[in-house]
Amino acid sequence: MEDWDDLYRDSDRSPRDRGRTYLESGELAALFPDFELVHSWDGLTPEHRHGDGPPERHGRAEAVFRR
Fold it and tell me: Checking CA distances to 46, which of 6, 54, 55, 59 falls within 20 to 30 Å?
């Protein structure tokens, strides 16, 4: 397992320079205060496997904005 470096609150970076950020439920819309929120959803994907790996789920967030 790789060691990831903390960048700032809820964000980190891998040794291969890949980043990830964790959002609280509903936080995505707050990142775009100058836009009208048309649609948003956040939750977990269905449980699945990658090859013979263990069952897992991924967090997902989506939003549609209007200027």
Answer: 6
